Every structure is written in C-alpha cells, then in structure tokens.
Amino acid sequence: EAGRIEFIKSPLECVPPAQPPPTTEYNKAPLDVIVTPPQEKTDLAKECLEARVLELEAALEAERKATQRERLLATKLQRQLARREVLQRDVDRERRLRLDSECRLRNSASEAERCRARLAALQREFSR
C-alpha cells in the first residue's frame, strides 16, 4: 500500500519449538524449578524478526529487479513505437509521392496522346 511495509506473523511462523513443561525435581527445594527465562523468549523473537527482515529485504530486492526489468522493457517498447511511427510517416510520404508521380505520368501520357493526334492531323493537312 503505497510503500508501506507491514510485518505480519503467520500463525506457524515464529512459533517457539515445543518445550516440555517445566519440571520440578522432587528432591530439591521448590525454588529450584526449571523455567524458561524471559531472555530466551526475547532472543527467539529477535531471531524470528531478523529472519522476517531478511525475507522482506530479499522480496524488496526482487521487486526492485522486476521494476528495473519492466522499466527497461517499457523504454525498449517506446523506442520501437517511435521507430514504427517514423517508418509509418515515411511510408505515407512515399505513398503520396508515388500517387503524385502516377498522376503526373497519366497527365503526361494523355498530353502526349493529344500531341500525337494533333501532329497526325497537321501532317494530313499539309500533305493535301
């Protein structure tokens, strides 16, 4: 969402490994109960967050590379489009020039035919 990064824990991710419940040794005093210290829990949480940060950094790098590829592709396509537009203008110009040339050729041919007919008429008139 517009560059906002959210840290979301999946339910299976970052779950501490199952540890047996604290056990009491019956031959010791009740204060000697084995309990997981809070430091281990915070270490596990830190490791989990560090792993998530690494995962997000890898995803960000992959996204940057994909964005760069898309930018390069867009630039390439824009160049191709510009080239095609130039070629299309050239083709249209050539087509117009060819049509003009064909029109001039038809006009010249009809003028030549008229001149031939007039020449033939004048030759007949002089031969009489």
TrEMBL record:
Coiled coil: 46-125
Key words of the record: Coiled coil
Cited PANTHER family: NCK-ASSOCIATED PROTEIN 5
Name used for this protein in its record: Uncharacterized protein
UniProt source species: Cuerna arida
